[in-house]
Specification:
The protein contains 14 helices and four strands. It is mainly α. The chain folds into two domains: 83 residues, no CATH class; 345 residues, Alpha/alpha barrel (Glycosyltransferase). The strands form two sheets. Strands 1-2 form a two-stranded antiparallel sheet. A hairpin with a 4-residue loop joins strand 3 and strand 4. It is globular. This is Voltage-dependent anion channel-domain-containing protein.
Length: 452
Amino acid sequence: MEETGIPSASGNTTPYQGIGAPFLAVSPEKLVTEPHIENESLSTSGTRVNSPDASIHEGKEGHELEEAKDPLDGIDIYDPDRPKFKLARRIAHFTWAWFTLSMSTGGLALLMYAQPHQFPGLRQIGFFVYVANIIIFAGIVVAMCSRWFLHRGTFISSITHSREAFFVPTIFLAIATIITGTQRYAIAEENDSVVWLISTLFWVYVVASLAFAIGQYSYVFKTHDLGLHTMMPTWILPIFPIMLSGTIASVIAETQPQMNAVPIVVAGITCQGLGLSVAFMMYAHMVGRLMSRGLPNREHRTGLYMNVGPPAFTALAVIGMANGLPDQFDINEGMVLDMKIIRPMAVVAAIFLWALSLWWFGIATISVIVSPPQYFHLNWWAAVFPNTGFILATISIGNELQHEGIQWFATGLSVCLLCSYCFVLVSLVRAVIIQDIMYPGRDEDVLDGTDN
């Protein structure tokens, strides 16, 4: 491949080795003396587009998105008249973040099932969305495999990348929505064999997501050097799958025989507690980053909705798991702790956590309204899936309190979320067609700034 010259700090030209080069050949002096490098964005292998340096403008907003360049082609990747590429080349930029589409679609199906105010045909629409989610998931898997086959080495680079790798957990989240959707839409309560299948899938999911959470964080701790001033909510994603084990448990426990239900609920509480605890530690860094450096670049602000998810799904899970326990549940004979205590405690805890979700929802919403993104990114789906958990938690609280006002509030939020889903979906289709994504330098396979 022909080398492309990159100007160094001294004005000389340092060769760039093209696709596969480990980093942009910029002189160390420039990196040390000029940490905020503007107007320098690269392509897949060593790119500085949407970096933390770019996402912080003296701690505040009011800046314009930096002009990004693809050094391989010498083109402005934000120029509407930029060259168009064929699908075979664009598939190299089909990232793990695409699974956010599947998990958002699956979440929408669950939301339709849980609506407190049903109308004729809503469950059938929800079933259609559930089936569509399975098709979408399968299509994404095929596209990802095509990327790895056509562009050798992209599998390893994607799971070790300092930015894209944080989206690998979204495949587990998509699987979680399929499992819960299957429980809601595809399993008859009297079908004992399928009930046992769902129980088996739950335990496999717990083991796999726990191993992944430990493995990915261990790898990040060992290999990456991420500054706290670059903190983004995607850092929470590796713990999200194990946390959703509690949500799965809350959905399937009520249909399981007692000998299965109790261990599932205990495992669900354990996993939910682990996920929420790690999320709280991440929240401390997130708030510190916001206090010291201000809001992220406008292109990344929708990602703040990810902070809504952990307390919201935990609120949903604790109510669901409490209701999933047998009515005569007593851990030990003569123990004072029984369902008359557990269920009210679950509702109180859910309301406590719901308030934290509401706070993060307000922060994210205001930040996006003040400075909306200019270009489509797959992180827009963060405005859908975490908020689905927030609305489902609202519905559960309203049902437990038997409060009609809360239920209608949840219905209104559901309509808003449906509109958000449709808007993001249309924007995604448009972005694919006009090559705003799946294009060099425009996706999650570009460095987030610290891997220089």
